[in-house]
Amino acid sequence: MAEAFLQLSPQLQYRDPGFIFVDISSTTRLFGGEVSILKRARDLSQSLQLETSLAIADHPSTAQTLSVYQPSYISPPNRDSETLKPLPLAALNHLEGLISWSSTAEVQDADIREIVSFFNLVGLRQVGDVQKIPRESWHQQWGKTGEMLWRKIHGQDQQLISPYLPQETLLDSLHFDFSVSLRSFLLHSLEKRLQILLARLQGRGQLAQKLRLHLHCEYSQQQHFLEVHPALPTRDSEVLMKLLEHKLASIETSNPIQQVEFEILPVAERVEQLDFWQPRIKDQDRIKDLQGLLRQAEINSGFVQLKDEILPEESWQLSFDFMDYEPLEDQVHIDGQSFQIKPVHSQHLRSAPRPSLLLPTPKALSSKELRQLEFLSAQPTERLEESWWEISRGRDYYLALSSKGECLWIYHDRIEDRYYLHGYY
Amino acid sequence: MSKAEQISQLRNRLAGQLISCDHIKRPHAISTGWPELDRFFLWPGWPKGEISLIYGPEGLGPTRLWMKCLPQIIGQQLWAAWLSPKNLRLCPWDLFQQTQSGNLSRLFIVETPSDQIKDWLWVTTELLSVSLFEIIGCHWDQLSPKPAQIHKLKRLAERYQCALVILTQQEKPFKSPLYAAIVQVGKNSICIERAQHRPTPHFFQRRLFYADFMPQFKSLPTAALNDQEDKPVLFG
Question: Looking at residue A298, what DSSP letter applies?
Fold first, then answer.
């Protein structure tokens, strides 16, 4: 979870039980000040549905204490000592910082609680009261523990937060006490956990290339494996949830799901120079997301790619990316004083009239259907023939009107001697 | 009090709010590519944020009527989408010939393999929610959506300000009151059955075939040709 806060600063340290220390000294300006960064941290924890208590101070120990006694407080720079003054003496228990009392070598001679009890006995109630006691007295009474406490309450305890390099794989699992058959509930439960993983990804500066899910069913040890593969690596939970929703629709949930394990395969984020005048989300990115979604649903989509082919149904296809059409041109090769011309035949096909809709598979017309058609010419308007040595059928195309007045594109297969409906104008 | 006096009183009371006809701004729309139709509609084309319906047998040109708006959109570097039915593919060569640059990079095509209305609606919803396309043409073939489904699409079209044009081959499609415009493509005329603030039905006479469509037909006897004046209406 701490990884999600890496987006505030790369210098981060996590300590049990549930303390996250972030060194924001070098990144505060990027977020527009301490108030903004505190708000950002609060928003982030709310989006992850974490109950957090936040504070900003010069030292980790002071920040920890403030998060307990004065949540959302921002201690002014170089004023940690003054900030601690009004706090009750029990606050000394929370002056741990990056290292807990239990793992601190100095805290052996005396327990912090004993020190607090002692001060209470002599009538001291606030941290400000004990700040007046000289360093030597602390050392004399409680040895190294006393000296360390003195440093902490005077803001002289230096603890450095080093950069955090996440190594863990992006894995998570979800166990249901009561197995789930309802897809919508399953999706809702997954969404929360997915958002945490995506926040971790954001902290790492990575994008999700794939999302893999193992769904363990309640009976017969049945398992489902789902793999969501967006067209472009993304961190958009909406896109991933849509893809996941579509994938989930394809599985049978009569055997209810008891446990879900999911994993994100990350990929490094693209680093690009942002243009002030350009929108952050490009049209092409939106199209790619849409294509990914449709591909997941096994729906053919894309841009028209025109091709120099004789047969109309082969003269274009849908491609993932748009590619400019480069028509073939006559080529002239000059070699010394000789030259060779390679003419391109059938150039006129590019400007030949074509219907607006084409049947993927031409429909054979019965003799009855044929009799109802009115051919607009006795001679074919086009004769298309390709690779006669291989598969060519030899097509004679006609325009014909149906009884409803529809303008049809019809061809006569000269080998089969049959008429086919191929398109509508 | 006579009606004239009532009108005069109202005019005096609302004088500050009345504007002349010249200052009325027409709602946003995508030009149909057919000037006569643009002039007839309140919107200068297919209305944005609304659903329009074109219906009629396929060979009479409903798809071609929709496609007429594409050259202009593509020329302006705007996005358009087409949703093909299972058994009919959009042939791009005609459009390629019509566009000056031949650049079809802004036309996104989806070929739906399913004939389930649920799948169609899902794809249409996704296309709308990308918030990218100025106009979406959906060829629903013989499918019939329910009123609630049309209502959902209408809401999305309005939200994403997209002109959604539905095409169908049905002879008597369900004419939802949510359709802003309904156009019937017939053999001898194109009938505007519904258009906001316009007297309907309104007919545009048409010829089935234009003699100059292909040069070789010029010499043919005019058996299949209409004897109206030599002016293209839809084809050509």
Answer: T
Q: How far is A295 from chain B (nearest CA, A)?
A: 10
Q: Label residue B192 by pLDDT band (50, 70, 90).
A: very high
Q: How many domains does chain B have?
A: 1
User: Would B12 be classed as within a structural domain?
Assistant: no
CB contact under 8 A, B91 and A355: yes
Q: Please, how many CA atoms are within 13 Å of residue A409, restricted to the half-sphere of its CB? A: 22
Largest CA distance in chain B: 70
User: Which residues in chain B have their CB less than 8 angstroms from residue A356's CB?
Assistant: 61, 63-64, 67, 90-91, 94
- Write down all domains in chain A, each with its CATH number in brackets: 5-153 (no CATH), 170-268 (3.30.1490.100), 302-352 (no CATH), 354-424 (no CATH)
> For residue A236, which of A279, A297, A277, A191 has the smallest C-alpha distance?
A191
CA distance A321 to chain B (A): 9
Containing structural domain, residue B198: 24-219
Residue count (chain B) = 236
Structure tokens that stand for A14 in this block: 């996590």
pLDDT in tens, A20-51: 999 988 888 888 888 999 999 898 888 888 88
Question: Which stretch of A35-39, A87-91, A222-226, B217-221 has the lowest confidence by average pLDDT?
Answer: B217-221
Which of B67, B91, B220 is the best mutation test for A, with the most CBs of A within 10 A?
B91
Rounded Cα gap, residues B219 and B122, in angstroms: 50
Supply angle C-alpha A30, A33, A36, rounded to 5. 95
Tell me whether residue B14 is in a domain: no
Chain A hits for B67, CB-CB cut-off 8 Å, are 356
**Does the residue B15 lie in any domain?**
no
Q: How far is B137 from chain A (nearest CA, A)?
A: 13
In what order do the strands lie in the sheet containing B202-205? Answer: A316-319, A300-306, B107-111, B79-84, B133-139, B163-168, B51-55, B179-185, B189-195, B202-205
* CATH code, domain carrying B36: 3.40.50.300
Contacting residues of A for B185, CB less than 8 Å apart? none
3-class secondary structure per residue, A130-148: HHCCCHHHHHHHHHHHHHH
Confidence check: pLDDT of A275 > 80: no
> Does some domain include residue B150?
yes
Query: Which chain A residue is nearest to residue B220, measuring alpha carbons?
Result: A377
Contact state of B59 with A402 under an 8 Å Cβ cutoff: yes
pLDDT digits (tens, 9 = 90+) for A217-254: 988 888 889 888 887 788 888 888 888 888 888 888 88
Q: Give φ, ψ of A271 to 5 degrees.
A: -105, 120
